[in-house]
Amino acid sequence: MTIKENLDCVTKKIREAEARSGRAEGSVKLLAVSKFHPKEAVLEAMEAGQKSFGENRVQEAVEKFEQIDGAELHIIGSLQRNKVKNAVKVASVIESVDRIELLEEIEKQCAKIEKAIRVFFELHTGEESKAGFESAEKIREALALFASGAFPHIVPSGFMTMAPFSDDKELVRRSFITLREVSQALKKEYPQFPLNELSMGMSGDFEIAIEEGSTEVRIGTAIFGERHYE
Ligand SMILES: *Cc1c(COP(=O)(O)O)cnc(C)c1O
């Protein structure tokens, strides 16, 4: 299967899941996760019409995307403070914000280059993954800082989670429900922010995520094939 065929196949499944769950057609966006795949794979996907990509590691993202025009890049992997400077240069969204200290650094680096960036709050909802804010309460604290004007160069735009890697579909579903419920509660408390995105669902679980309200699925393997970690 070519990358184009895979993209067509994934897109068809997304549209079917939207229809099945009474969601509007096109309400779920596809982020193609190109980590560990070469620049040529990204170009092939772009040739097939894909514009939005996700990368875990900043250095890899910079090397790949610096010379690619017209792609929209999201950082989706846990981010160290010293990588923020380069991250805000290449990315339009940082989905893996998991602590207030990181927001402080993002604000500082964006102010320097006079750029506004969108972020999602990552919530830890699955036992196995360690990533993300520990609780909704911690995200609420971050939003209170936004409300007091602490981060003028950052637009809080949504939420992200990774479900546990499990065959237990109900366990996976519960992760997605948790993120949706947290997002609904926080949107109500902070209506001034465009907290519209729910980034949830990967190759193995995106259809469940769409049923539970995902607005963006992050898909790597089903588009680019298996990753070979060196
Ligand atoms: C790698 C990764 C993905 C894509 O995973 P696949 O199972 O290959 O679709 C999605 N989200 C995050 C945060 C990732 O690290």
Question: Can you give a write-up of this model?
Answer:
This protein is an alpha/beta fold. It has nine helices and eight strands. An eight-stranded parallel beta sheet has the order 7-6-5-4-3-2-1-8. Strand 3 (72-75), helix 4 (84-90) and strand 4 (93-97) form a beta-alpha-beta unit. Helix 3 (58-65) runs parallel beside helix 4. The longest helix has 21 residues, at 169-189. The two termini are 24 Å apart. Bound molecules: pyridoxal-5'-phosphate. Pyridoxal-5'-phosphate (PLP) binds next to strand 8 and helix 9.
Keywords, please?
single chain; 230 residues; alpha/beta; eight-stranded parallel beta sheet; 9 helices; 17% strand; globular; binds pyridoxal-5'-phosphate
What small molecules does this complex bind? pyridoxal-5'-phosphate
DSSP helical segment count: 9
Low-confidence residue ranges:
none
Structural category is alpha/beta
User: Could you give a short account of the major beta sheet?
Assistant: 8 strands, parallel
Strand order of the main beta sheet, please?
7-6-5-4-3-2-1-8
